Amino acid sequence: MSARLSAAFAKGRPALVTFVTGGDPTPDATPAILDALVAGGADVIELGMPFTDPMADGPAIQAANLRALAAGTKTATIFAIAKAFRARHPDVPLVLMGYANPMIARGPEWFAAQCQDAGVDGIICVDIPSEEDSEIGPALRAAGVDFIRLATPTTDTARLPAVLNGSSGFLYYVSVAGVTGKQQAAVDSIKDAMDRIKSATDIPVVVGFGVRTPDQAAAFAAHADGVVVGSALVDLVATHGADAAEPVRALTAALADAVHGAKATA
Amino acid sequence: MNAPLAPNSLRNLPDENGHFGQFGGRYVAETLMPLILDLEREYKAAKADPAFKAEFEDLLEHYVGRPSPLYFAPRLTEHWGGAQIWFKREELNHTGAHKINNCIGQILLAIRMGKTKIIAETGAGQHGVATATVCARFGLSCTIFMGATDVARQQPNVFRMKLLGAEVVPVTSGAATLKDAMNEALRHWVANVHDTFYIIGTAAGPHPYPELVRDFQSVIGREARAQMLARTGRLPDMLIAPVGGGSNAIGLFHPFLDDADVAMVGIEAGGHGVDTNAHAASLTGGKPGILHGNKTYLLQDEDGQITEAHSISAGLDYPGIGPEHSWLHEIGRVKYLPVNDDEAVEAFQLCCSLEGIIPALESAHALAALPKLAPQMDKDKIIIVNLSGRGDKDIFTIADKLGVEL
Ligand SMILES: Cc1ncc(COP(=O)(O)O)c(C=O)c1O
Known about the structure:
The complex is a heterodimer of chains A (about 270) and B (about 400). With about 270 residues, chain A is α/β, with parallel strands linked by helices. Chain A has a single domain, classed as TIM Barrel (Alpha-Beta Barrel). Chain A is built from 12 helices and 9 strands. Chain A has a 9-stranded parallel beta sheet. Chain A starts with a helix and ends in a 5-residue tail after the last helix. Pyridoxal-5'-phosphate binds near residues 242, 244 and 388 of chain B.
């Protein structure tokens, strides 16, 4: 597991994981937004790779994907943004999140090598379940890039080991059966799921989907190793465009306070 | 009919992981994965259950109106002056296309699985109408996702679906056509897996959909094979079918795949021409990639972004193709040819005037390949064209193309 990711989850308190779409609203605006996430206190940065057909995303992130593509964001742009981020922030873990087709378009080895070269710590791929691991998993592992899998409310106890096998970095627990956006899971269901998952693995487990406010983030963080916030930040980018960095920093700071202060249940 | 297949048969894929060679598979979000595995188990059980088969066949006979005729088209044959041209008349089915065969099979599966809500995507509205029809017949709630562009250009089918009790949800993302409708249906499904069954309308999507859609549609080829043997005492020399996602084509082709002397041609939508950006010929103009749960040939750019398809035929206007066709293309068992919008419109008119049959624009693509194939063949050769649907739904598009105001 990447040393940067291990360190991010070894601070004795839950981690804040933040998501924005790369190239939204433009490739030029993204670096300042990423810096704002770091300045606000995010522990892990997820950089979304835009895709024409974001099937697992709700309206906010769908629109962000299309804005980024319309602004000319290419795969090369994403790696340039990642590489420059790594130069500015040598210790902050950076994870790419996206869909399979752009990741395999030039072959998984090419993609894994680019990740390695740009200092990307891990990959989250929405549409490569463990059954299709061979599509990209071996290439990522050979390049020392973590393959971060997703577990969901429909991942039952029998299936969980298959999902965990080959996962590294952290496990992303999707709190609701649904797409990214506003739907919110009950805290009780999170607690139950975390108990189940934590008893099956030692890798950190973060909870995401539907977390928008510091209060919600704190409530989830009390049961997890980290909380992911995406759509709420992407909404700020949609509203403020090229001037989004400051509002993004302010929301991130409020979220970080809430998450870092949440008492983790052992 | 259920005799074991030879080990070298071309008819025993997909493998147990849903792959046809490098194609197919299950590229879905984790939320859907358990459901897809359930569906696979349930489909295996249904296949082995004589009661399921009996109910499917009974509905095909008495509700759909099968078998569909195999018809010798004398004037079209004479017109092209080569091989005999025969039509498999899927356009005579209830709801006017082959789509209903698959919908009957899938709704029986949905009921077996205890699902109470049905969703589907539709482009031209043919699959939407067929889905709304079986939902009405079995009393299940029905929601159809349809691109807003298609809602506007296919008003009669939108109204048909509503008459049948379906809710039609216009999808405004992307180019607001079939691909976007499929994205939205998948999003809805992810959020409603507990009670919802997704009736996919073509032989694509995550395993086991390409397999089960093919199996339900294979009634086309099984009938055609038996009908041809009964009428002429021999097998046809060539099969031609239009290919959108590929369900009518694989339905016709599959029962003949091991008949080495039967040539097969799938017709892709060439739109304004495969050398332009405006076509839907994913095998001719695309490369392998992952979308909508399967690995298959896709129209895409060098970054793997999916490019918009174009076809005058809404049912072919999709940037992908079912994975079994990608495999049959790569091994060379089936040839795939593109046909342009204009050629399809010409073939449409010719079929109307020579055979008294108004074909669907999708089917007209298959008819448009005849001048390239039939005249070179001897008069004792036999071609079967899959007349996958009737053209009532397309008269507005044709009128528009011909500059006629209705
Ligand atoms: C009449 C007809 N033929 C063909 C098609 C293409 O679909 P497929 O390739 O799955 O048969 C459609 C799709 O709407 C259709 O309505």
